[in-house]
Specification:
- By secondary structure, the protein is mainly β.
- It contains no helices and twelve strands.
- Helices cover 0% and strands 34% of the residues.
- Strands 8-7-9 form a three-stranded antiparallel beta sheet, with no helix packed on it. A three-stranded antiparallel beta sheet has the order 10-11-12, with no helix packed on it. A two-stranded antiparallel ribbon has the order 1-2.
- Strand 7 and strand 8 form a beta hairpin.
- The mean pLDDT is 78.
Length: 193
């Protein structure tokens, strides 16, 4: 119960093994959602996620769960109702480097933002001009009454090939390189001059 910061009272969870996973069912009391009288067309937000790796949480909506507007929108429907209003729009970013073309990045893998998460912008390497470079970004998702919110903490530029040179006690050097695209690593020793 996020509102009261405690385990939910009165909820029941059941699961059944299936091929390759489980089917989960949850019975949640209306009072836990602060709903006294449920009615058709009522909308509310729900967060659904799963534990990852024992110490992390992945939100299954693909949106940042720490922003209330990003909760999965659910609408109570009755037979014959148009449920289109209950759709949750996708959140995407339009990212541009200098005056280049846009990269559209769907934010579909966002975990709980208590952890640092990186979304890959390009599959291909890019070459930066010497000097100042400008990154521009803007919302590029679907427009609606609840278009979603995107939080950007930082942009991280990573070299295609990382290289470190270490000096040895006898005056030689050891050069380590790591290609971040191929995973290839090299180790080169040079004797003292």
């Amino acid at each position: 119960d996020w509102t009261r910061t405690r385990f939910l009272t009165g909820a029941t969870l059941a699961w059944q093994p299936t091929e390759g996973g489980y089917t989960f069912e949850a019975a949640i009391p209306w009072s836990a959602l602060d709903i006294e009288q449920p009615t058709a067309a009522m909308q509310f937000g729900l967060e659904v996620g799963r534990g990852v790796g024992g110490n992390s949480f992945m939100d299954l909506t693909g949106r940042d769960p720490d922003v209330p507007a990003n909760l999965l929108t659910l609408m109570l429907a009755e037979p014959g109702m148009d449920a289109a209003a209950s759709l949750t729009p996708q959140v995407s970013l339009d990212i541009r480097l200098n005056d280049g073309d846009a990269y559209i990045v769907p934010e579909t893998v966002s975990p709980d933002s208590d952890f640092f998460w990186l979304d890959l912008v390009t599959l291909e390497s890019i070459r930066l001009n010497e000097g100042e470079n400008t990154i521009r970004y803007r919302y590029a998702g679907e427009a609606s009454e609840n278009p979603g919110i995107s939080k950007i903490d930082a942009f991280y530029l990573q070299p295609v090939t990382a290289r470190s040179v270490f000096s040895t006690p006898d005056g030689g050097t050891i050069t380590l390189t790591y290609n971040t695209l191929t995973g290839e690593a090299t180790w080169t020793e040079s004797p003292a001059q």
